[in-house]
Amino acid sequence: MIRNSVLVAGAFALTGCASVINDVTHPMKIETKTSTGHVVAGAECKLTNDYGVFQAKSGDTVQVRRSSKDLDIVCKDPANPDAVAKAISRANGGMFGNILLGGGIGAIIDHNKGTAYSYPLWVQLVFGKSLVFDRSTEKDGVPTVGTEAPATTASK
Q: Of 67, 70, 86, whose CA–CA distance to 131 is shortest?
């Protein structure tokens, strides 16, 4: 009996805390609006990270694959210029649980699987703008506030 309990506890320790607590995907609500604030539903959105490409229509919630890498988002609507965004990947509570409980192996597993990370749960892209959404500024019940992405300069 004790031997079986030790084996079960050992198996859970090796899976990683975030892997036990978090699924490999999580929901993200995607909305689009014009620069004047008019909400536009049904724009075609493509979300991309190192695990693949996810398709959604603005106004919907899509399951995105968790990753330590940021999520690039582009929404297209025929009547508007593209809406572009980057959702910053941040470590979630499962990663901190691994660190606090001494689960170095679990932390490595969760990092590699992406389950130790999350993106903002609700974003509003603006047509004609490039925004950055950071889960660290997220508040319950409202979209995460996006900040304008810095302009990039072409190298010569």
A: 86
